[in-house]
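Problem 12. The chain below contains 238 residues. Write out its predicted structure in token notation.
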Amino acid sequence: MTRVESWHSERLGQPVTLTCWGEFGRPVLVFPTAGGDTGEVERFGLVDAAGALLADGRVKIYSVDSVAGRSWLNGDDPRHSAWIQNQFDQAIRWEVVPAIHADTGPLPIIAAGASIGAFNAVASLCRHPDVFGAAIGMSGTYDLEPWLGGYWSEDFYFSSPLHYLPDLEGTQLDRLRDRFVLLATGTGAHENPDESWKLADVLGAKGVPNRVDSWPGWVHDWPTWRAMLPTYLHELTS
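Solution.
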């Protein structure tokens, strides 16, 4: 069963759409790629790839529009892109998560995504370990600094795990150390395994459990992610 819910987000100044697939199970929020909308994960087969898990009631999949990703992809002023990235995070925590929990109850959410969707998945877990239990980053792009054109701001700093995690202390870090980050990367065309290893080093230095899985020869494309996602959802929900 597919359900679609929309509302106007004051944080983003535009509509937010949340799509859901499945009847019950562990909530999984799958972030689209940079230009994707809430239905992208279905059109490109990720929902079907997880079909057995959905049918067994082990997962319930959700997705949203890639609001911040579109800004980076469109080459907007980096000041705006950094601002909307931070606002997107706030909309996820205070609008999307409550909508998911109203549907499933207060279960810890698995965040997942590919490419820049992997960035959003890991960033959501790192900033909000109170509501996210694990993250699956597939073929991730984790360092957005090259897109800034030399611009820097607190909006960007607090949006980017690579940059703020080294300084993180206190309750948020304590909670994060009880979570798990799974970073999967291919080695074929258009993949950059160094991005995953760089993030793993930062996570490891702060005592955050994580693992990097290399998929030799797999390329930066949907067939790779259709293989990865059900593999890791099976692991995390067993």
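Discussion. Residues 7 and 173 are 32 Å apart (CA to CA). Students who got a different answer should revisit the alignment rule from Section 12.3.
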